[in-house]
Amino acid sequence: xxxxxxxxxxxxxxxxxxxxxxxxxxxxxxxxxxxxxxxxxxxxxxxxxxxxxxxxxxxxxxxxxxxxxxxxxxxxxxxxxxxxxxxxxxxxxxxxxxxxxxxxxxxxxxxxxxxxxxxxxxxxxxxxxxxxxxxxxxxxxxxxxxxxxxxxxxxxxxxxxxxxxxxxxxxxxxxxxxxxxxxxxxxxxxxxxxxxxxxxxxxxxxxxxxxxxxxxxxxxxxxxxxxxxxxxxxxxxxxxxxxxxxxxxxxxxxxxxxxxxxxxxxxxxxxxxxxxxxxxxxxxxxxxxxxxxxxxxxxxxxxxxxxxxxxxxxxxxxxxxxxxxxxxxxxxxxxxxxxxxxxxxxxxxxxxxxxxxxxxxxxxxxxxxxxxxxxxxxxxxxxxxxxxxxxxxxxxxxxxxxxxxxxxxxxxxxxxxxxxxxxxxxxxxxxxxxxxxxxxxxxxxxxxxxxxxxxxxxxxxxxxxxxxxxxxxxxxxxxxxxxxxxxxxxxxxxxxxxxxxxxxxxxxxxxxxx
Length: 514
Prior knowledge:
By secondary structure, this protein is α/β, with parallel strands linked by helices. Helix content is about 55%, strand content about 5%. α9 runs antiparallel to α19.
């Protein structure tokens, strides 16, 4: 929309089925793209718009935003009886922070909003006593913004909101003051929702930024009329789609315990295991107290402040995890906001210190796997192709390019820097097509060169290289991008110890011969 580039619109952002708000993409990636566009228009940077800046500028902005997480840990650690500097080291050393919080995921924004919400509901006076909650408007704004970013934010916000409500009721003697707090929260939440609904409605009814710019030129009655005509509330569309098990099955179904048994360990390693152990010990002790009928005399608050640490933090961790486990589609990135309560809990009694060597090795391997190897050749491949396609043309006849991707993640077309009016570049994403289907497509392209200056490139992982050699085609050029690991087509272990190991951990760009 901003740079007038050809992109692939995911179904969530189509006007026929808008399930995602456009506000956060515009406020994050949109701002960074607007900056590099302005720099180029002002001749400050003549070639600002290229594949590298298109990738790095939004990531740089997200990396700056990620320090909200550091600030939150520093502010919250004393409140939850953890050493702030040790907690910061644990946070900074996590590959989740290094890899996921520096990339443009809605889950990253969800984690940052969750961190801000935890800061707002957790406050103490200088003498260590609980401070009177005064952040009702901000809590309402952040909760609503998080809900529009990802409706699953309500799972993360539930425990902080209940904790805050408990503090409100305990600290206020007047029912009028309590109602005043909740009224402020509701009013600010409603106002925030109106802003999101208005922006989304104007964007999706005409699919573009021009509709948003036209708001300032329209009268109030025109704006209200358009909203009434077709009001778009993206979170409700999101929920109605994802609550249908058949829709989730299209994206992959997982056992309900995947988050608990696999994804939590994959992301947080020993910290997740320590939290599970502490949770079971607390539960065992609490049940033991109930059996011995001591809870009536000691009260539950005694349990919340002693034994294995503060179980409120464990609830901040396990309650969202439990709610997310109700859905059959479970990806690891859905859990990345939980790093904050987990880090605070792990350092509240220095329980992670004895495992520091295990934690360091785990995060080094995680950063190497997910930050470098996993689909690692796809972005460099797009950089290479972008430079190739935008190189000076020797003749006046435009060159035609066909880029056929197979057995890779969906290539982000924006990084190819193709203008919308450019019809000389075609991108075909064959995903995980079978060998026979792949060969048919490649052979068809090889036999149907329609011009003298047509170029067809096939991009495949090295582990699928053998499949393409069985096709009745020849290649005149090949480029190997290293490293690249495809977990869907993993390399065979014996090949990794042979002289051909680089090809197994690489991505091939094969240029088709006539």
